[in-house]
């Protein structure tokens, strides 16, 4: 386990992407195999290896949207949201329909929205003295999401919905749905958040 040596990465890429002469149906399969290898490295937290594989794919196929999104995702993982946003600009119109693109784009928008907000502890302290301040609770939910506490973000938005469904033109529910999109439908926080939302809406 651990980082894959560069020599092994190059050997893999040579085998997957530069096999000659390829059969007519081979290029797509070769790229798919490389994308799977890159995703495996991503899942293992080996962003350097994943980045190298994605870059090699783009040398072979300059408009491979999955590889572009993969590199943008790595930028997010490394904390460079600006570079991630710039990278996503290269995704084609068809690529923007991919779930991975929509999820990452939503996450970046939420991160930008959180910029300038106070820390969660400060917002919690203020909210304790003004618990019906829905805007403050809304900001707290955004701040919690940016801090990685998805469940608390969902709980605060559900609290607003419970107290005032029509607040800000149903803004709390709309934002909660944006969070679900950014987290992905199978994320535990999305699953639990949807249950909490249903309990409020259909109680």
Describe this structure in words.
The protein is mostly helical. The protein has helices at residues 6-17, 26-43, 47-60, 65-77, 81-88, 99-114, 120-129, 134-146, 150-163, 171-183, 188-201. Helix 1 runs parallel beside helix 3 (47-60). It is elongated, with a radius of gyration of 21 Å. The chain starts with 5 loop residues before the first helix and ends with a helix.
User: Please, what is the average pLDDT?
Assistant: 90
| Estimated radius of gyration | 21 Å
Distance between the termini: 49 Å
Q: What sequence of helices (H) and strands (E) makes up the elements?
A: HHHHHHHHHHH
Short overview:
This protein is mainly alpha-helical. It has helices at 6-17, 26-43, 47-60, 65-77, 81-88, 99-114, 120-129, 134-146, 150-163, 171-183, 188-201.
Helix and strand topology:
Layout: H1 6-17, H2 26-43, H3 47-60, H4 65-77, H5 81-88, H6 99-114, H7 120-129, H8 134-146, H9 150-163, H10 171-183, H11 188-201
Helix pairs in contact: 1-2, 1-3, 2-3, 2-4, 3-4, 4-5, 4-6, 5-6, 6-8, 6-10, 7-8, 8-9, 9-10, 9-11, 10-11
């Amino acid at each position: 386990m651990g980082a894959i040596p560069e020599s092994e990465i190059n050997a893999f890429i040579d085998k997957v992407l530069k096999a000659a002469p390829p059969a007519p149906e081979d290029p797509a399969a070769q790229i798919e195999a490389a994308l799977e290898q890159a995703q495996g490295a991503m899942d293992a937290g080996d962003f350097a290896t994943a980045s190298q594989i994605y870059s090699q794919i783009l040398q072979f196929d300059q408009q491979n949207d999955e590889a572009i999104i993969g590199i943008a995702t790595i930028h997010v993982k490394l904390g460079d949201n600006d570079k991630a946003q710039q990278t996503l600009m290269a995704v084609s119109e068809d690529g923007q329909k991919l779930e991975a693109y929509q999820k990452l784009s939503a996450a970046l928008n939420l991160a930008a929205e959180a910029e300038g907000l106070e820390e969660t502890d400060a917002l919690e302290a203020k909210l304790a003295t003004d618990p019906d301040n829905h805007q403050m609770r809304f900001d707290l939910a955004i701040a919690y999401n940016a801090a990685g506490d998805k469940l608390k973000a969902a709980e605060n938005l559900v609290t607003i919905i419970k107290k005032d469904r029509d607040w800000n033109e149903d803004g709390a529910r709309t934002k909660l749905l944006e969070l679900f999109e950014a987290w992905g439908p199978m994320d535990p926080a999305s699953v639990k958040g949807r249950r909490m939302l249903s309990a409020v809406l259909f109680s």
